[in-house]
Amino acid sequence: MKKKIFSLMTIGALFSNSSATFAYLPSDQNHEYVALGDSIPAGMTPSGSYDLSYPDYLKNMFDGSSSKLADYDNFAVSGYTSEQLKYDVENNETIRQELSEATHITITIGANDLFQKLLTNPSTVHQGIAAASTNLDSILTTIDTLNPDADVYVMGYYNTFAYYPEQVQDFLVPLSNALNNEIEMRTVENGDTYVPTAHVIDQKFEKYMPNPDDNHLNVKGYKVIAKEFWKTIKQNR
Fold this sequence. Notes:
By secondary structure, the chain is an alpha/beta fold. It has helices spanning 8-12, 39-42, 54-64, 82-91, 93-101, 111-120, 125-146, 166-189, 198-201, 205-208, 219-236; strands at residues 31-37, 69-74, 104-108, 151-155, 193-195.
């Protein structure tokens, strides 16, 4: 597959069919699932359109178990930063109500904080990572206040720079890793569950991220991510 160096403007556009193994979930419990985040849970595809994303496939996995979801809400928005999600969690009454009732919550956030700094002033990129870390901590703390019994799962990002030449990745990938490290640290500190995805996406990135000019996953990639969440949910039940 042809590879080429992308401009940082391409980075800015980033975040604006395997079967599932179903687990037993107690039928006497009403499961309610809320998804939060950026364009990944929103379902942005490599073609720039929208399709099913990992929360939708995860919802199907719940429904395929012995206890179907009583409610499912996906509030993800393409291009969202951690500051925007923090505002919603603290001020959007509809979202706050759904979070207070949820049994399971998934979050994918932070990449746009990094990419905005890359676009505007790369020398301040670590400020974007720090902001994402601080805001995620506030998001998780607020959710815990609203609903201390909810199971919260936070996604780690795959390598969105996989098509870049090695010398470019030498600069960008450590930044992505630093973001993931902050996401994992904040998640664990708040008693929630970190779900990495790089190990299942990166080795087959051309299969799951087929457009060299766009870093979003296709539906196959989103199904793979859903399976990672589902495996973790089964382990925590």
